[in-house]
Design brief:
Strand content: under 5%
Helix content: 40-55%
Distance between the termini: 38 Å
Shape: globular
Order of helices and strands: HHEEHHHHHHEEHHHHHHHHEEHH
Low-confidence stretches: 1-22
Number of helices: 18
Structural class: mainly alpha
Number of strands: 6
Radius of gyration: 23 Å
């Protein structure tokens, strides 16, 4: 009898541990997918929705994905959950807008879907919060065209490993193309708002894109504007800490650092780095080469342009006369891919609005870019940004006051109010 009781206790204990392990895996997958970034708002409850998102048809608000049965997904079965994640169809049958990256999530395996479902149903606290209505003109609100869109642009569920690549590369591809949905920001979109490519087979995949007033840079091997000068170790370092000797995370990537990639295992970060490093450049760029004449002029007091004078007064203390700054915490401006990009949106945006806090696994960075929208006029920001894009060997084009004015109108200054999901 004692043996039966002991065996039952051991089985019960095993079941509890197995359940905990499954929940931990589900939490890990939710971290890798950074679900909290889109389905939460600063100051709100995690996964309760309400984030405002722009789209070609109007303003969307993300939904409550906590297990509340009335306002969230508490009444979803595993099949309902799977259909919404991998096919973009809600429990009641309505089509989701592709602001939800289900074309990428289609690659998720069935077992990962099950673990995610277990996490959201059992570990995420239920929040009773009604979803906010989207702000879409009535003539654009019918969703039946999304059924056609899905047929054309959403792949069949599942991930097929590339047999010509090793296990590490395929793990990186699964995380980048699928769960991490990196292409949602970093891949250009077509006329139907579709990502032009969803995987490494196409050269437009992760080739860079403008989204929500930021330019998400190329993650391919472009020498000047991509990751061509980054080692695999430096890619992994950036994903783990939010910075390296080349750059510091900003914009939407801050959400990724605050809630996602620093929580991944070193082996998964290495797999992502190996996959990204394998992507060939989209164009033959000349690698950045330092030109010391700018630093010499600044150090000798020669500021013969308005942009140079503004740089000395507002930027040089942190970013230095040679533009090298103090990496990894204060990013260099000399040779920085964001500075060299053809699209200057990110550089203008961060000068206007400053940077949001980076909190990698609970450790906040000590340095943040201040905002200059209150101190500098559009013309002055255009002048200093144009100077930076042409100094120290940088060979990017000038920007206009009109470009600055447009971003000033459509953006807001940075804030300390961010979303950081606490670990259990």
């Amino acid at each position: 009898m004692k043996r039966l009781i002991l065996a039952a206790a051991l089985l019960a204990g095993f079941s509890f541990v197995a359940g905990a392990m499954a929940n931990e895996k589900g939490e890990y997958l939710a971290r890798a997918g950074d679900c909290v970034a889109c389905h939460s708002v600063p100051g709100g409850r995690a996964f309760a929705g309400g984030l405002k998102m722009a789209s070609p048809v109007g303003t969307l608000y993300t939904t409550n994905i906590t297990p509340d049965p009335e306002t969230g997904i508490g009444s979803y079965t595993l099949e309902d959950f799977d259909r919404s994640i991998r096919r973009g169809i809600a429990r009641d049958g309505h089509r989701l807008y592709p602001a939800m990256p289900y074309p990428s999530y289609a690659k998720l395996t069935g077992s990962d879907i099950a673990d995610l479902y277990d996490y959201f149903m059992h570990d995420v606290p239920a929040v009773r919060q009604a979803n906010r209505a989207n702000e879409i003109p009535p003539f654009l609100s019918p969703r039946w065209p999304l059924a056609v869109w899905n047929v054309v642009y959403t792949p069949s569920p599942g991930f097929t490993p590339d047999p010509s690549k090793d296990a590490q590369w395929n793990r990186g591809a699964y995380l980048v193309e699928g769960l991490g949905h990196c292409g949602a920001c970093h891949s250009p979109r077509g006329t139907a708002w579709q990502e032009k490519s969803l995987d490494a087979r196409d050269s437009s995949f992760l080739a860079g894109a403008n989204l929500d007033d930021w330019y998400a840079p190329s993650l391919r091997a472009n020498q000047a504007t991509g990751l061509g000068s980054w080692s695999q170790g430096e890619i992994a370092e950036f994903l783990k800490t939010g910075h390296n000797r080349h750059a510091v995370a900003y914009g939407s990537m801050g959400d990724v650092i605050n809630n996602s990639t620093p929580y991944l295992t070193d082996s998964d970060l290495a797999a992502i780095a190996a996959f990204l490093a394998s992507l060939p450049a989209t164009e033959a760029e000349t690698a950045w080469v330092e030109d010391t004449s700018t630093a010499q002029a600044l150090l000798s007091g020669k500021t013969d342009t308005a942009g140079a004078a503004l740089y000395v007064s507002a930027c040089q203390t942190c970013h230095r006369a040679n533009g090298a700054a103090a990496p990894p915490y204060v990013p260099p401006l000399a040779g920085n891919p964001t500075v060299l990009d053809k699209d200057p949106a990110s550089l203008i945006n961060i000068v206007l609005n400053g940077s949001w806090p980076l909190v990698a696994k609970g450790r906040p960075d000590a340095y943040r870019m201040p905002q200059f929208r209150e101190q500098l006029k559009d013309r002055q920001i255009a002048e200093v940004v144009s100077f930076i894009r042409g100094a120290w060997g940088n060979k990017a084009g000038a920007v206009s006051p009109q470009e600055v004015a447009a971003l000033r109108k459509s953006t807001q200054p940075s804030s300390d109010n961010i979303v950081v999901l606490k670990m259990r």
